[in-house]
Write a structure and sequence with these properties.
Blueprint: H1 3-28, E1 34-38, H2 45-61, E2 65-69, H3 76-83, E3 91-95, H4 97-101, H5 103-106, E4 118-127, E5 130-133, H6 142-151, E6 157-160, H7 166-178, E7 183-186, H8 190-199, E8 204-207, H9 212-216, E9 221-225, E10 251-258, H10 263-276, H11 280-288, E11 292-293, H12 298-319
Parallel strand pairs: 1-2, 1-3, 6-7, 6-8
Antiparallel strand pairs: 3-10, 4-10, 4-11, 5-8, 5-9
Helix pairs in contact: 2-10
Length: about 325
């Protein structure tokens, strides 16, 4: 037997062995708790979604599903932790769309590749962002707010869930469309940004839903939604497009795994997460936040994120947004 033939047969045998090991691992998975790492602080939409699906997935796979928050750098810290985790199906990432579709364009030194090091598992929800202002700003409508901002250039500041987040991108799109100036104040998540909006430390922000309860009690004023369509639960809130500004900052939150996780495990998690999304309580909660649950096949989710990546990437390049 030639050396070439021996090497060829050894390679084939190795591939077959690896495939068999992957099959066996998928058959025995899970035999210990599964971890969902949320790359934003508690209280935000990603955290809310992770904790909402965890019980249903846990019941289905007969193992505990633990939620762990690792915020920072617009999701890069938590995403990096998952990207570098073992590809054994016990660690998943629950994240915003912006962390996956915008970060690669604004951070020049991400320690992972969102497309190569992380694998799409399941879509969770379409999240919209609402333009909210603190009542200290003398405006009751979008036109009044824009007029005030133009009359006070550079005096307003806005909060966001972090540089590159959908609230940040929405505000940048809005600033360009409205031709106003305002200072960006990034936070480690939407929840701390909302706290400072309520306290008046920042004057406005694009919020992913939690602020709507405060608008209902008069603590904040909601002016518009940065979406292609109105939120079904809040039909009286107009889109920025209807008000003459083309701003669409919808984003798709979802679940990802480290690259290399067995396709069988990925498909199982996709099925169980989609079932968990049918929970009436979760559907109601997302509607209350102005969004909607969005169960998808893996292929649909990949296509959706690719479209968002192209859309946001083009805007980031045009606007010249970068984070050192």
């Amino acid at each position: 037997m030639s050396i070439t033939s021996a090497v060829g047969r050894s390679t084939v045998a190795l591939i077959a062995t690896c495939a068999l090991c992957a099959h066996v691992a998928a058959q025995t998975w899970p035999d210990k708790p599964v971890k969902l790492i949320v790359n934003f602080p508690p209280g935000g939409v990603a955290d809310t979604l992770a904790r909402a699906i965890a019980p249903g997935v846990s019941e289905a796979i007969k193992q505990s599903v633990v939620v762990e928050n690792r915020p920072g750098a617009n999701g890069a810290i938590g995403a990096d932790a998952v990207a570098k985790s073992p590809a054994d199906g016990y660690t998943f990432l629950v994240t915003s769309g912006g962390a996956m579709t915008v970060d690669p364009f604004i951070y020049s030194n991400l320690p992972y590749d969102t497309q190569k090091d992380l694998t799409a598992v399941a879509s969770l929800a379409i999240v919209r962002v609402f333009l909210m202002i603190n009542p200290s700003v003398p405006a009751k409508s979008l036109n009044e707010f824009v007029a005030y901002a133009r009359a006070n250039p550079g005096k307003l500041s806005y909060g966001s869930a972090g540089s590159g987040s959908s609230p940040h991108l929405a505000a940048e799109m809005f600033k360009r469309a409205a031709t106003i100036e305002a200072t960006h104040v990034p936070y480690k998540g939407a929840a701390p940004a909302l706290n400072d909006l309520l306290g008046g430390q920042v004057q406005f922000m694009f919020d992913p839903g939690p602020a709507l309860q405060h608008a209902a009690t008069g603590k904040l004023t909601v002016l518009a939604v940065a979406s292609a369509k109105r939120a079904s639960r809040y039909p009286d809130v107009p889109t920025l497009g209807e008000l003459g500004m083309r701003v669409d900052a919808d984003t798709t939150f979802g679940v990802y795994a480290p690259a290399g996780v067995s396709a069988a495990i990925i498909e199982r998690m996709n099925r169980e997460i989609n079932r968990a999304l049918n929970s009436p309580a979760l559907v109601e909660n997302m509607a209350r936040l102005g969004g909607e649950v969005a169960p998808m096949t893996i292929q649909e989710f990949v296509a959706r994120q690719a479209a968002d990546r192209a859309r946001y990437g083009a805007f980031v390049k045009e606007a010249g947004i970068k984070v050192d």
